[in-house]
Amino acid sequence: MAGSEFGTIFRVTTWGESHGKAIGAVVDGCPAGLSLCEADIQAYLNRRKPGQSRFTTARAEGDQVEILSGVFEGRTTGTPISMMIRNTDQRSRDYGDLMEVYRPGHADYTFDLKYGFRDYRGGGRSSGRETAGRVAAGAIAARFLESLGIRVRAYTAAIGDVAVDESRFSWEEMEKNRLYMPDALAAGRAEKLLEERMAEADSAGGIVECRIWGMPVGVGEPVFEKLDANLAKAMMSIGAVKGVEIGDGFQAASSRGSENNDHFYMEQGQVRKRTNHSGGILGGMSDGAEIRIRAAIKPTPSIARSQRTVTRSGEERQIAIKGRHDPVIVPRAVVVVESMAALTAADMLLLSMTSRLDRIQSFFGVPVSEE
Amino acid sequence: MAGSEFGTIFRVTTWGESHGKAIGAVVDGCPAGLSLCEADIQAYLNRRKPGQSRFTTARAEGDQVEILSGVFEGRTTGTPISMMIRNTDQRSRDYGDLMEVYRPGHADYTFDLKYGFRDYRGGGRSSGRETAGRVAAGAIAARFLESLGIRVRAYTAAIGDVAVDESRFSWEEMEKNRLYMPDALAAGRAEKLLEERMAEADSAGGIVECRIWGMPVGVGEPVFEKLDANLAKAMMSIGAVKGVEIGDGFQAASSRGSENNDHFYMEQGQVRKRTNHSGGILGGMSDGAEIRIRAAIKPTPSIARSQRTVTRSGEERQIAIKGRHDPVIVPRAVVVVESMAALTAADMLLLSMTSRLDRIQSFFGVPVSEE
Amino acid sequence: MAGSEFGTIFRVTTWGESHGKAIGAVVDGCPAGLSLCEADIQAYLNRRKPGQSRFTTARAEGDQVEILSGVFEGRTTGTPISMMIRNTDQRSRDYGDLMEVYRPGHADYTFDLKYGFRDYRGGGRSSGRETAGRVAAGAIAARFLESLGIRVRAYTAAIGDVAVDESRFSWEEMEKNRLYMPDALAAGRAEKLLEERMAEADSAGGIVECRIWGMPVGVGEPVFEKLDANLAKAMMSIGAVKGVEIGDGFQAASSRGSENNDHFYMEQGQVRKRTNHSGGILGGMSDGAEIRIRAAIKPTPSIARSQRTVTRSGEERQIAIKGRHDPVIVPRAVVVVESMAALTAADMLLLSMTSRLDRIQSFFGVPVSEE
Amino acid sequence: MAGSEFGTIFRVTTWGESHGKAIGAVVDGCPAGLSLCEADIQAYLNRRKPGQSRFTTARAEGDQVEILSGVFEGRTTGTPISMMIRNTDQRSRDYGDLMEVYRPGHADYTFDLKYGFRDYRGGGRSSGRETAGRVAAGAIAARFLESLGIRVRAYTAAIGDVAVDESRFSWEEMEKNRLYMPDALAAGRAEKLLEERMAEADSAGGIVECRIWGMPVGVGEPVFEKLDANLAKAMMSIGAVKGVEIGDGFQAASSRGSENNDHFYMEQGQVRKRTNHSGGILGGMSDGAEIRIRAAIKPTPSIARSQRTVTRSGEERQIAIKGRHDPVIVPRAVVVVESMAALTAADMLLLSMTSRLDRIQSFFGVPVSEE
């Protein structure tokens, strides 16, 4: 089944394997007239690039994006935007011995049973490298949203059990450290934790948080196409994500109605909320407040430590994953989370344009019906 | 935008408002030949019916389902199954004063801005009553799955901060108590907690957990249509859900690779996993183990306690929600979670049939290609 | 597979069998604020009702539509509009002997092989009665289009080889005669032809033409979602349709470029076309001229004359279809064609709103980017 | 809106402009295990390549396809297959003067109004070159169908008013002449007709016919997703197509029931039809007979003859299209029609696998329910 598409109106199709010729994405449905160039996309891709710190893989991937269609004289034309990144580092030899063995925590086993065989080179399609297509597309979605005054921004909220402290929260700090943590103290502790894990041939997980500002009220559809439902799908579709929260998330479960309800008040003629336990979404629709999403990311499954597993032919075996692997993928997942949030927000924003007859009449220049 | 459909192959469309003439659902794409009658669906609907205990609304809704199409001589025909439940209790007068006021924690405000006005009677489309359509459809999905040896079952894992203790877990107990908690001690404590909340004119939230057994390996599509991604959307599309976890969920974030990876081993010629931190899903595909999903449910927003809010015309106001409202919706949400899980599982199972050429060749009776 | 849905944003789901309890449709995605009542829909349904003339079946079907949801205080709310028509005439006995025999020209055989069995009462889901749901939904689409100044209108262009003569074309005449032919002379001849066919226990086919006026320029998407592509699908999805043309259709195949190209000119500051061979669509997008679609309808397959066929169990057999059957379905198909055209136009109009960034910026009240 | 995708399970996304860097397609949902290499696709692309005869453009486009993903060790992996064709001949200068003028019969005007501006180089996205992506994808669909014993084949049925005579029909002849006409005499006459048109600076249209053999009975879904409905959409989505017929098409409209109904009979235990007026489709589902589709193609709009038109700024103007243009596109459209038919058939075949519970139970190795 076709499973590499995301979105209804603003849609991305990604393609490519870790060690194939190239990876890429096609964005279809991006409105015409948006100024766009390769550098806009490259800036996002650089944020997920490996080799940025001692906690990320040393693979020297250039990750240079090429726009092949859909942009003319510096602006999007409304037709599909095809983007390609050539894989320059295709050292298949490193992975040859993984052809037969199912790595614990990876999709080797499920891929083999689903498809009968698999491209075993570096994880093939199930590699984290697949997210490059998401990020390239997300860069366009984010740019589109910005042209409407909407901003999306993610950061590392926790690595292992080291969490950001709200009292020390700083966006500036977040840009400075390589873990994308908006809290210098927490970042320092997280680095220490990661060094320990590396020493132990082990790995860590963490939490990425994402915020969206400037969303008009009423984006998202009641019932199945709720904004939060689509954000949850978007997040959970990222390889290592095992949990998603909107607003207070699981804390809401142990809260009480009188605490959890956000009270409305008026400010300069506008409806506002005193608190934001809902995370900016009520009944599946944006309520005008900051949208808050959290994604739980499992520890990197590739560890150098010996693990027990089985082979394709049903033999039990010990395995120790060779080569350099990130002891944590959380920092590199930040831009992926941001991209998926942007893609979801862009699509649902466009879908929200058809909800009211009076606005549709205005759009087409027809006198608005009086009732 | 059309937002009341769920699923690609096995698809449900729900319709209806809390105080309209009726509510219902159309299930399209259910395979032909499944034995089905109204009693099969009624059994599910009865589990979400109000008025079952002192913690649920007294509204005397018969909730009698009528099958209008798609079933002939006791079996599904492969054509759309239309189901309708007449609303017998349409006392609009109870809600008349809510026409102008935005209830905190409800979708009144977002509905009004999205659509320009709203059916204010009992929450209209955003009422919990909307879930009756999901449950009617879920009953069919569950029955279909059972015909393939797949079972889906949900229960109350926590109410407020009272959680089920794994050591006392009992499915039998779960059937006995009205909170659907598989732990008698926890259920007793939860009842006490709910009585306190009612006395305080307040409410509670909780957690519903769902398990799926018997799913073949390889159901779910890599990248965007992962099984867990669609389960997350399904869960988050339920009105009060604010968080979703698969397997260890947020706990995985603070775990380490060596703990979180499930090791494979062989048992009677089958690949098995020693642990199940992944919750039965690897790389977005079922891995043969029990599938585990958790959904966090916020406290009922309708509370008798006075709250501050605003009106449609922008005036600040105090509001106290009159009438009987459930101090907790978690027990009634159990069957809704189960239904959404069943709908997702049924759809993705059918979608998984097209992944391998050799199996397609067998299906159509063509000699399988040799390579 | 779910195959009873049509449309992306403005979507209809139909359900129901000829002799089941009821038939109906759910329209999801209709913008909020459209004034709508049952009489608006009934007017369309009356146009396809049987028993209107001696050429249509005598079945005394009330076809009274009931709106069950989605309309509040006389206006659409933006939520699904569920409509139901009870089947009052369920005389199963007339069709009992057709349980075993495959009627030539009908879907009995294909239904049986696809689903393993079928609801044989009156054709079940493959009955022409299925179109009632399309018409109920089409009535809403047409009303929505009218609120934007767009009109859709169909008529009988030919019955058998008796075609309307353009020189005698009259919309007034079309309303007067029961064949919906806008040419009195042709209508008279067609009546004679039908009487002959009835006398011979035979049937006739014909052509329905449909026109759309007032469509803004640029509706329809290049490549696969062309306006004409979706109109063609809409038409061909009607049971008896075997051919579709846009503009000059098959005549264009034998024309030459210098004749077939429509020349542009200016009129009062507007771009106009001198001719309309294209039928109002260029490159898959509306070009501002009248949209013209033609659908070829095959002769009614149910004829009293004896035909050779086979049974479920593989025996050869003679069959003569008993009961009264229309010798032609073309007049009743007119409103079905109009409904499908309206549904397609409504959906593609809404989809066209997202093509330009400048218009999206205006819609959301954001200053338009200068380039 | 995203409009460059086709198919639900077996899906293609095309991208690229006539004079951009490259054009291409992504095929998602192709089952794993199909043997595939670039030569398989190249063979199809060569059939639509320009410069093959004196009636097709001289543009020396290599049209060399490159597979970038989804194929491993000579077989499809079940993941997206990305294909790219670099545009080697990007002489933008030839088209510079068309920036301002709307060519009659082309999509220049509608593109400009829909998107606010357009890539005017060689027609941009509305160029016939867009079909290269369809053909690359169609080659894969055709190969998949062949692995199941299903064949798709198209040919030129008419050029202008010169039609193939059934009595002289020869597939061998069709392969020999450059017009792909299976009738040597008609091909000779058509060549003469084309020479005349070229001499007159004019162009011709024609008809392409396509046949599908070996389709199992029951492919296609009743109501909206009929096999013929999707074939009609597929055909009409091709740039110059203005009409589509299934089986007898428009001739059925003037036929009578007793002639048009195909009688069933038994042959070696199989149900067969004596005639095939239905074109292999009954009630929207394949009936086991040869599937026949016809597409009417308009004359090439680019003619050297002077035509009247307007400019972007609203001035009237004369225009004569310079450069070499095909006096007819029908021969090059043959493989495009074949490709779209193959894509539709592949998708609907896969969708048909979920119609019966007993077959699903067999597929998953579960004992079939007895009723």
Automatic annotation (TrEMBL), chains A, B, C, D:
This is Chorismate synthase. Keywords: Amino-acid biosynthesis, Aromatic amino acid biosynthesis, FAD, Flavoprotein, FMN, Lyase, NADP. Homotetramer. HAMAP family: Chorismate_synth. FMN binds at R125, S126, S127, G283, K298, P299, T300, P301, S302, R324. One of its GO terms (molecular function) is FMN binding. It is an enzyme of class 4 (lyase). Pathway: Metabolic intermediate biosynthesis; chorismate biosynthesis; chorismate from D-erythrose 4-phosphate and phosphoenolpyruvate: step 7/7. One of its GO terms (cellular component) is cytosol. One of its GO terms (biological process) is chorismate biosynthetic process. This reaction introduces a second double bond into the aromatic ring system. NADP(+) binds at R48, R54. It comes from the Bacteria. It catalyses: 5-O-(1-carboxyvinyl)-3-phosphoshikimate = chorismate + phosphate. InterPro entries: Chorismate_synth (IPR000453), Chorismate_synth_AroC_sf (IPR035904), Chorismate_synthase_CS (IPR020541). Its EC number is 4.2.3.5. It comes from Candidatus Lachnoclostridium stercoripullorum. Reduced FMN (FMNH(2)). Its cofactor is FMNH2. SUPFAM superfamilies: Chorismate synthase, AroC (SSF103263). PROSITE patterns: CHORISMATE_SYNTHASE_1 (PS00787), CHORISMATE_SYNTHASE_2 (PS00788), CHORISMATE_SYNTHASE_3 (PS00789). Belongs to the chorismate synthase family.
